[in-house]
Amino acid sequence: MTSDEQQQAPPSWDQLRKEARQLESEIEVKLSTLAKIGQSTGLDNTGQEVETDELLKKLQNVITEMGDFLDRPSIIPTSTSMIHLLGRHKDILYDYTKEFRRVKANIKAARDKANLMSQVQDEIRTFNTASNRDNADYYLTERNRIEGSHRLTDMILEQAYATRDDIFRQGRVMRNVNQRVGNIVSHIPGINNIISRINTRRKRDTLIMAGVISTCSILIILYWLHT
């Protein structure tokens, strides 16, 4: 047998079996790592996913070669244990493929959740920033209103105090005038008698006018009653 024929010779059953077990061991480690990292952080594990997918494809190729080995004539007779072992590797490949899909789905869900939480946190920060800015504007506006009210109150109080001072001054002036008039009257002889007579005459005239008006009213009423 030449060197080219040896290189092209298909692998033996033992070689395929060992390679299948080696790949299964590596795939199991990869799946365990992906499951832990994906569930805990949800980070981007694209590299790990690609490597695991390549290992699954290699295992699929090895299992295909094992099936081909059993189908072609060989000096080693096909035994029940070999068929059972091939079926076992197929079951393991199926389970690993199913687990890999589940892990990828969990990683995607964790990544989506992390992205959603990040977006929510960004929106909360944006809302808080806008809210704080609005609150600052509101408080500034309210402070300006309060200061304006204080200024208006001060103006009203100043006007009230000025009006009060004017009233007090006018009161003092009137008291001084009354006092001076009283002093003048007290120094003029007979002025009090004259004022008293004037007041008496006014009262008498008022009584006379009241009597005349009453008499006229009675006469008018009697006239209306007899007509």
TrEMBL record:
<dbReference type="GO" id="GO:0031201">
    <property type="term" value="C:SNARE complex"/>
</dbReference>
<dbReference type="GO" id="GO:0005797">
    <property type="term" value="C:Golgi medial cisterna"/>
</dbReference>
<dbReference type="GO" id="GO:0000139">
    <property type="term" value="C:Golgi membrane"/>
</dbReference>
<comment type="subunit">
    <text>Component of several multiprotein Golgi SNARE complexes.</text>
</comment>
<keyword id="KW-0333">Golgi apparatus</keyword>
<dbReference type="GO" id="GO:0015031">
    <property type="term" value="P:protein transport"/>
</dbReference>
<keyword id="KW-0653">Protein transport</keyword>
<dbReference type="GO" id="GO:0006888">
    <property type="term" value="P:endoplasmic reticulum to Golgi vesicle-mediated transport"/>
</dbReference>
<feature type="transmembrane region" description="Helical">
    <location>
        <begin position="206"/>
        <end position="225"/>
    </location>
</feature>
<keyword id="KW-0472">Membrane</keyword>
<keyword id="KW-1133">Transmembrane helix</keyword>
<comment type="function">
    <text>Involved in transport from the ER to the Golgi apparatus as well as in intra-Golgi transport. It belongs to a super-family of proteins called t-SNAREs or soluble NSF (N-ethylmaleimide-sensitive factor) attachment protein receptor.</text>
</comment>
<dbReference type="GO" id="GO:0048219">
    <property type="term" value="P:inter-Golgi cisterna vesicle-mediated transport"/>
</dbReference>
<comment type="similarity">
    <text>Belongs to the GOSR1 family.</text>
</comment>
<dbReference type="GO" id="GO:0006906">
    <property type="term" value="P:vesicle fusion"/>
</dbReference>
<dbReference type="InterPro" id="IPR023601">
    <property type="entry name" value="Golgi_SNAP_su1"/>
</dbReference>
<keyword id="KW-0931">ER-Golgi transport</keyword>
<keyword id="KW-0813">Transport</keyword>
<dbReference type="Pfam" id="PF12352">
    <property type="entry name" value="V-SNARE_C"/>
</dbReference>
<protein>
    <recommendedName>
        <fullName>Golgi SNAP receptor complex member 1</fullName>
    </recommendedName>
</protein>
<dbReference type="GO" id="GO:0005484">
    <property type="term" value="F:SNAP receptor activity"/>
</dbReference>
<dbReference type="GO" id="GO:0005801">
    <property type="term" value="C:cis-Golgi network"/>
</dbReference>
<keyword id="KW-0812">Transmembrane</keyword>
